[in-house]
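Regression check, S-adenosyl-L-homocysteine case 431:
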Amino acid sequence: MNEYDSNRIYDFAKKINYFKTENLKEVDCYVLNTCHIREKATEKVYHDIGRIKKKFKNKKKPIVVVTGCVAQAEGEILLDKEKYIDAVIGPQSYHDFNKTILKIEKNSKKINSTHFDVIEKFDNLNLIKNSSNKVSSFLTVQEGCDKFCKFCVVPYTRGAEYSRSIQELYNECKNLVDNGVKEITLLGQNVNAYNFKGKKLSDLIKEISDIKKLERIRYTTSHPVDFSEDLIELYKVSNKLMPLIHLPVQSGSNYILRKMNRNHTVEEYLDLIERLKKINPLVKFSSDFIIGYPGETDKDFNKTLELLKRVEFINSYSFIYSPRPGTPASKMEEVKSDLSKERLIIFQKTAEEIKTKYKKSLFNKKVKVLFENKVKNDESFFGRDEYQNPVIAKSNENLQGKIKEVNIINGNSNTLFGEEIRKTDRENCAA
Ligand code: SAH
Ligand code: SF4
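Current build output:
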């Protein structure tokens, strides 16, 4: 979501003649767009500002703005502690960006803009075209969260759940497709809780599927509890909805899930997976895991490992539990850091083995790849198959923005390498 937000902040900034540059010498303004989901984010901000300070030691000071969830969570503290920062802007008030910059240009008063104006933000965003033209682009459809998992800062930094209207999303989507976008990932902290006047995520997906040149639709991140029947049904009929489902489970232990306030059991999670597979046997899953949550015993951890092996997630993102200020879990007794680290290593080794086995199973198979860009200094193109596996294929034809069948020759645990199956090859095969 920060990538979407950064692009949209830039869409605003261009209106007051601020443009991106890679030439650091000519920078007039730095925007540090931050994430607060795990620790170290705040330290990173101070660290980055230290580097900027050094660079501009004997020069005119650039404007420095901290945006995003660290700004939201630590606004006033940041301004007090680091005088080099001119403004903090929270994720629900970045429509104030231009106003803020213009004020700073005029006088040097510090500005704290961290109010929750999500409706006003999107009203303002709707007035400014989304200029993204990447083959695969993001689109925020829902923000905030009402679930209050005990470890999570999102409900405090992004605020309450809010869904944008189907009409504005259709328009933004159409505009992106007109820019050349072929794949859209619908974003939300709790995307399958999307609800605009009774219209659900499945309705939104159906609506945008009508945009002819839009080839692929993905969404992230969904919560198991909000996976309603209509969304499951869509996997039977939609040919644009991709078959990889990111479904964070966090833990394989019912005791820990309860302590996290996730509101479902492991059995209910597995049942959901079975129902999805039954509706469409091609679906596969990826997930997020928190290792070393307060109270996690060896037994709980082993249950998480068991679940990992049982579902064979093709991608697993695992994080050591990180206490976040203000959350209920931050008051619970922590698992010893060495033990958490040990568990994380075991978990990641197993996840990697599953992933490698899966990637190997694709060798000598055909996959459909949407190519995103040319590989630098090489006659190859980079793209992703339907399961988001990165694929590189040689070609002297420009494949950017095209979907091609590729025969996978080899690969490693990350990237697959293949050859485009040309029409003539296919005809030869048929003959
Ligand atoms: N809404 C999504 C998750 C959004 S946060 C869901 O409910 O699944 C993205 C991921 O960051 C989470 O899935 C979780 O695995 C991780 N995460 C969030 N807070 C964390 C914390 N305090 N410590 C460690 N990992 C955390
Ligand atoms: Fe955070 Fe996701 Fe839980 Fe919401 S559902 S509180 S975003 S982990």
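Comparison notes: The chain has a mean pLDDT of 94. Residues 37-38, 151-152, 189-190, 221, 223, 248, 250, 288, 290, 319, 321-322, 324 surround S-adenosyl-L-homocysteine (ligand 1) (CB under 6 Å). No diff flagged against the previous build.
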